[in-house]
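Project standup — Tuesday

K.O.: blocked on the structure for the chain from last sprint. Re-posting the sequence here as requested.
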Amino acid sequence: MSLGDAAGAVCAFLNLPPGAGTSTVESKTNFLRAVRAGSVRAVSRPLHTGSTLVVIETGLSDDEGRLVGRMTQSQLVLSARPRE
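H.V.: unblocked you, prediction finished:
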């Protein structure tokens, strides 16, 4: 779950306007099978990149390419505040 969360956060960050930040509004993970050996790969893609919300989907796969988990995150876009 941590791997998917980190990959989703990076994907959200890469889709923010300059100077903006993000905060998780919702996160859901479905575990589909166990991984007893080897490694897990995370691939994230934006489903929606709006001015107030970014929605990311992350697939988690094992060494054999089998889907082992799916995560969906909603990230609130925090606009950069002008410095005074």
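K.O.: great, moving the ticket to review. Strands lie at 21-31, 40-49, 53-62, 67-78. The longest strand covers residues 67-78.
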